[in-house]
Automatic annotation (TrEMBL):
A Pfam family recorded for this sequence: GGDEF
NCBIfam families, A to Z: GGDEF
High-level lineage: Bacteria, Pseudomonadati, Pseudomonadota, Alphaproteobacteria, Hyphomicrobiales
Record domain GGDEF: where: 179-312
Record protein name field: Putative diguanylate cyclase
SUPFAM superfamilies listed in its UniProt record: EAL domain-like, Nucleotide cyclase
Amino acid sequence: MAGRNPSSPVTPAPPAGEPKTVLDTPEQTLQALQTLQCLVYRWDLTANTVHWSANSGEALGPALLEQLGRGTTFRAFLGCTDESTDYHRFARALPLASMPYEALVRPAIDGTPAAFRVHDQGRWRAGSDGQPEQAVGTLEILPLLAPVIPGGTADPLTGALTRRHLTEALGTLPFGPQARWALLLVGLDDLGRINDRFGFETADRLLVALAGRLRQQLSSADLLLRFSGNKFAILLTETSVEALGAFGERLISEIREARLSAGEGQLPVSVTIGAILPPHQGEAPDAIIARLQEAHEMAKRRGRGRFFLDLQGTRNEGRRRANLQMADEIVQAIDRNDVTVAYQPVVRATTRTLVFCEALARIAHDRYSRQYSGHRLVAAADSLGLMGHLDRSMLKQVAADMRRDPTLHVSINVSASSIMDEAWIALYRREVDTDIGRRLIVELTESVAVDHLSAARNFIAQVRPSGARIAIDDFGAGATSFRNLRKLGVDLVKIDGGYIINMAKSPDDQAFVRALLTLSRQLGIETVAEWVQNEIVAAQLLEWGCDYFQGSLSGLARPLATEHGT
């Protein structure tokens, strides 16, 4: 930009005649682009040339525009100096494939950081030979007031920015009464069922289509980020309480009424959205993200396809401090070996002889309050993200007990976080040999199998060589199918105790349990009825073909000294 410091703010420069590299643009569109400081470009990757829309001379100045007519200079301008920083991800692809890209970057002019940022968004296309051929995109010039995302690597599936960029952006945003930004967490409902019924490829296509729909609702100053498997985060840089509520409800309505592309056809879907406003005081990015996740959980509790705006803000800080104290107590209890194993017997239905024991976590009550007793310890650890730590502690203790007692047969629970935890797998390989493995049953809850089917299959493939059997716990509580049980190679199903405990009074529960037992028997899968408390229910289960009982009728969980496996 001749005549001014290249790091100074962008101001319109008088046009220096229409350059040869200008695209023809309809008049109304051009006026809108000029107003928005949004430039359109077509990048010929083969010829290393970039062609710009007519308003580009005003926005960039003729000198810089001439430089940016070369692809190599344009890349350097955007900070794409090597493969690690080039968010376009140009690479060999399928013939005529089209790939999205998006980044919010602070450009450099002759090596000097500019006093503005640019939002670069577009798609590149491969030629008939699969080599990158052309990219078409928009480049919006923005002030530095909103966050700058250096590098800007995009999610390879959807083209959205990644969660890392959200953390970086939150570190630059203003706080207090004058802050007008907001965060939304948009979750695609029932992704587990979509995976189950239509396959992972269809689910991926729906996520790509959803990302496209969400982009259509945003201004170029806003950010769309892939937060996790089925969730996208949206950062609105300028909004209000009223506008945010209307935006969230409109987004839910438009997604519900639309049909998202799933490849060969279209499917109706819904989204659930949680949203938060800026805190009144400075807050760490991790704390802001935690509040955002809490808001999304509140929306889910209200039902699918709901919007929830958390207006409490930092008033939840007391609860978060209590959670932090609880987490610290649980971690200390694990590290001090105050979390121990109790074994609950599982008996054969016909003879009431002991077959194996389920390993359950218990905590020493003399040091810790009874809020952690029994299942509450697992619930607290799960809600605080500590299940991986607890699972590894339980695995080590159970393996040690089984080495000391060669007659002990045990089932051990594994959480969703652990089936994808390399540390748990590595510990399992160290602790469990074939002697222990042939006496071990690994339990996955039905919700884990439904929501993480691919990960569950991979996990089972890694524990099978030890000789361990696989059980699905709480069966009937979720929405998995017997078809998936066969895919997973399940040996046992443990019927959710919520159905067993009400059987005597509920004809519906009786019919459901009987159907589960019949189908399991036809597939050659053994069954365990949980929460069996009396002889009347036990007799009915035995008549219907249940293999094993677990519950107060056959014994409560106790330390190993009072239980022996056979």
